[in-house]
Request: fold
Amino acid sequence: MPVRVLVVEDEPAFLQRFSEAVQRHAQLELVGAVATVSAACATIDAVLPDVVLTDLGLPDGSGTTVIRHALARRSDCDVLVVTMFGDDAHVTDSIAAGATGYLMKDALPDSMADSILQVRDGGSPISPGIARRVLQRFRVAATGMVASPEPLVVSPATPPVDNPLTAREADILRLVAKGLSFSEIGEVLDISPHTVVAHVKRIYRKLAVHSRGEAVYEAQAIGLL
Reply:
């Protein structure tokens, strides 16, 4: 029997990408593709999927609600989180809710279908940066060591005195946080992908980061998102 998969994602480009990845694989069956928490919960009740692939930032709530609902309805359901949110609060909330895997959208594996099958086969695909921090937390808990400069618990964010980003850079960062590619951002803002890349490089420099995930995390931490 094929593995029955529900995709929960509010960004149309990613919803299509993940749905097509499921539909193209002979061992998987797409039983739903929805964009909200309410639709996800209703679909889970109706079809009881084997695997739920969900984003966290949904229009009507958090993906952690989807995780808890899926496990409440079917204890052997596996939930794979695929998101742009790599901050400690989202990671720990997802794991506590029962997520089986956690992937960052800016570092997706070549085959999403393989990740879904890995989850169903008992694996836990986790983006390397997330895995390192999770392991670090357990190591600290087990040894009583003092936490490193990158603790898993986030300190309360302090609103910035001044926004270092221009209005255009802020617009681009918001679209980056939604998971859009540079080409898609260019289409939305009617500028070339090369111009988007140039803006993104300036954003990285101003925020002292080196990746999309780090930029989103830092922007959230200082109150820009």
About this structure: The longest strand covers residues 28-34.
